């Protein structure tokens, strides 16, 4: 088997007494869309934070295409081609939509020219225009990103991930807070991206997960509970218990509702 | 009137005014105002240094007076102690300000917000007290005076800042050049990186920007602007004094910037002009003129958070939108969804 895109060995992250990620060894093969699911507090976002360098692990190692990236800083990891979105939508609010994409495209370069006119860079400009068209925001290109609707910000985030031409994309709940129509648009875009980019996605919306994932890893309390094909995961008893809730709980909820 | 014609009109009249100052002002009032305008230009460059950090990178520095002071002492000590001529002394002032900014920046830009503000104050206080206590070298609060070397010598003719008209144009040229450089930086790829960091430094690091290095570059550039203004002020006053390194001087630059418009090119110039003109007019009649400064600062923060220039830009944008709305509709092709 070829070297996996992303591999961790005994990854641990403790916050004081809480172990958010507990001895996690994960192997994500290339060319597939991986979904990471799990109940709240399972350590999904912490896992992303460890991979993207926003947190440094308490123990263990992270490998990206065979290269040990443990302890790299966020911008170094980003420059290796690992890009991520954040759970709470995060763009540059006072920059225009086009400038958000523009600086994201340029940020990968080691050298930002201090005196040349930014507007004179035609290569970057044409990339920005193409992405704007792809995410359907051409008409809003000049608007400050902070004034966009929630769904448009989410599309902009995806656009920012795409324009930097990542080789691995970490999406943290990309459809969270979207309307059904926006969700469909985003899912379509992600499927489209998956043809050329390796994608790991954290998602709570099970329709989205089962719609796009090739493999699913279920986390609970910072450790892997199960992993496999969507069909296997859907049948897995432990997953149903931990994640989807036990039948007794549902009864309890129903009883409470009727009380 | 369209937005563009108003802006061109403003720029042309401002440039015409600035170029005609040495003749216009004596004709209208007193020669004294030529020197006030010279001073305004110098201080607006100092405010621009605080603006580069606060308005474009999101770092609030209360310590820019330190680099102003280094620029000032570089010139004064260069001429008085080392016997340098004009340009080497000017260079010494600028280089020492840049070097100091680099050294303190290495520590300061690791921090953000109030911690950054505090460490910039601490650095400037340390060197303020050092300058005050090293009286044999710096002259302390009394400062050191020096006599001006000539700027150029062409054959028999000598150009020196002792000629107020030449001094005015010299300052105007240097300040304009610095504003032009800053304009180029702000509109460059590097400048967009600055803005991205100001807006959202976490996101900036995730897209691959080295936030630390970019902040350090901005800090050194701001040190350069403050150093040039300090060097100019030393030439202008023919002296240097530790009192200009006090953090109150830094604070004034921040207030001028905020009232004029942080994050705008000409906000510092507008704010500095406003406050120095008020000071010159009011201070001879009323000693508490800084109350007006405080009142204006409070009003600006509440009613014009982007300052006077920000308010103006808002009006211009609305005017631009009105122009666009009243323009004849263009034929556009729209794709069906």
- Gap between N and C termini of chain B, in Å? 38 Å
Instruction: Please give the number of β-strands of chain B.
Output: 4
Q: What is the C-level CATH assignment of the domain at 1-81 and 200-258 in chain A?
A: Alpha Beta
Spatial separation of the terminal alpha carbons of chain A: 56 Å
CATH superfamily of the domain at 1-81 and 200-258 in chain A: P-loop containing nucleotide triphosphate hydrolases
Helix content of chain B: over 70%
Average pLDDT reading of chain B: 89
What's the overall average pLDDT of chain A, rounded?
Answer: 86
Q: Count the helices of chain A. How many?
A: 10
- Largest sheet, spatial ordering of strands of chain A: 6-7-8-3-9-10
List unreliable stretches of 5+ residues of chain B: 331-337
Report Rg of chain A: 20 Å
Tell me about the largest β-sheet of chain A: 6 strands, mixed
In percent, how much strand structure appears in the residues of chain A?
A: 15-25%
Strand content of chain B: under 5%
Structural class of chain A: alpha/beta
Helix content of chain A: 25-40%
Assembly type: heterodimer
Describe the structure.
Chain A has 10 helices and 10 strands. With about 260 residues, chain A is α/β, with parallel strands linked by helices. Chain A has a domain at about 1-80 and about 200-260: P-loop containing nucleotide triphosphate hydrolases (Rossmann fold). In chain A, the strands form 2 sheets. Chain A has a 6-stranded mixed β-sheet with strand order 6-7-8-3-9-10, with helices on both faces. Chain A has a 4-stranded antiparallel β-sheet with strand order 2-1-4-5, with helices on one face. Chain A is globular, with a radius of gyration of 20 Å. In chain A, about 40% of the residues are buried. Chain B is mainly α. Chain B has a domain at about 35-245. In chain B, about 75% of the residues lie in helices and about 5% in strands. Chain B has helices at about 5-30, 30-55, 65-80, 85-110, 115-135, 135-140, 165-185, 190-200, 200-205, 210-235, 245-260, 265-280, 290-305, 305-325, and strands at about 145, 150-155, 155-160, 240. Chain B has a two-stranded antiparallel sheet. A two-stranded antiparallel ribbon of chain B has the order 2-3. In chain B, strand 2 (about 150-155) and strand 3 (about 155-160) form a beta hairpin. Chain B is globular. The two termini of chain B are about 40 Å apart.
């Amino acid at each position: 088997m070829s070297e996996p895109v992303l591999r961790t060995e005994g990854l641990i992250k403790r916050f004081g007494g809480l172990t958010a990620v507990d001895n996690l060894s994960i192997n994500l093969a290339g060319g597939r869309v991986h979904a990471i699911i799990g109940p709240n507090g399972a350590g999904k976002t912490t896992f992303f934070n460890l991979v993207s360098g926003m947190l440094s692990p308490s123990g263990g190692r992270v490998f990206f295409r065979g290269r040990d990236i443990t302890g790299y800083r966020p911008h170094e990891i980003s420059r290796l081609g690992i890009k991520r979105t954040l759970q709470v939508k995060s763009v540059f609010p006072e920059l225009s939509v086009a400038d958000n994409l523009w600086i994201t495209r340029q940020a990968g370069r080691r050298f930002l020219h201090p005196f040349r006119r930014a507007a004179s860079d035609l290569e970057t400009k044409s990339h920005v225009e193409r992405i704007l068209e792809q995410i359907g925001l051409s008409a809003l290109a000049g608007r400050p990103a902070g004034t966009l609707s929630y769904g448009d910000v989410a599309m902009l985030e995806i656009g920012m991930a795409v324009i930097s031409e990542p080789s691995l994309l970490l999406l943290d709940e990309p459809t969270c807070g979207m309307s059904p129509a926006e969700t469909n648009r985003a899912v379509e875009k992600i499927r489209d991206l998956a043809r050329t980019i390796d994608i790991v996605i954290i998602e709570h919306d099970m329709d989205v997960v089962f719609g796009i994932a090739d493999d699913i890893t279920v986390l609970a309390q910072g450790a892997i509970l199960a992993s496999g094909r969507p069909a296997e995961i859907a049948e897995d008893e432990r997953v149903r218990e931990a994640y989807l809730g036990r039948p007794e709980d549902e009864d309890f909820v129903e009883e409470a509702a009727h009380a | 009137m369209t937005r563009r014609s108003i802006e061109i009109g403003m720029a042309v009249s401002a440039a015409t005014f600035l170029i005609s100052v040495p003749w216009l002002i004596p004709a209208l009032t007193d020669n004294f105002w030529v020197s006030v305008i010279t001073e305004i230009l110098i201080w607006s460059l100092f405010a621009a240094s605080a603006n580069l950090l606060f308005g474009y990178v999101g770092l609030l520095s209360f310590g820019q007076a330190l680099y102003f002071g280094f620029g000032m002492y570089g010139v004064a000590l260069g001429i008085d102690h080392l016997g340098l001529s004009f340009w080497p002394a000017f260079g010494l002032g600028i280089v020492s300000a840049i070097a100091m900014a680099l050294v303190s920046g290495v520590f300061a830009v690791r921090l953000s917000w109030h911690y950054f503000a505090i460490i910039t104050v601490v650095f400037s206080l340390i060197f303020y007290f050092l300058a005050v206590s090293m009286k044999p070298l710096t002259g302390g609060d009394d400062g050191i005076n020096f006599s001006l070397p000539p700027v150029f010598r062409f054959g028999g003719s000598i150009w020196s800042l002792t000629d107020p008209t030449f001094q005015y144009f010299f300052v105007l040229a240097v300040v304009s050049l610095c504003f032009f450089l800053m304009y180029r930086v702000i509109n460059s790829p590097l400048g967009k990186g600055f803005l991205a960091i100001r807006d959202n430094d976490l996101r900036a690091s995730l897209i691959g920007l080295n936030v630390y290095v970019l902040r350090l570059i901005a800090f050194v550039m701001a040190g350069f602007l403050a150093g040039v203004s300090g060097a100019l002020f030393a030439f202008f006053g023919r002296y240097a004094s530790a009192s200009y390194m006090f953090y109150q001087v830094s604070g004034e630059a921040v207030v001028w910037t905020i009232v004029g418009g942080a994050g705008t090119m000409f906000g510092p110039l507008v704010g500095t002009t406003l406050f120095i003109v008020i000071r010159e007019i009011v201070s001879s009649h009323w000693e508490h003129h800084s109350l007006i400064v405080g009142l204006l600062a409070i009003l600006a923060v509440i009613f014009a958070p982007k300052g006077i220039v920000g308010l103006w830009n808002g009006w211009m944008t609305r005017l631009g939108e009105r122009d666009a709305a009243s323009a004849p509709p263009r034929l556009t092709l729209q794709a069906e969804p």
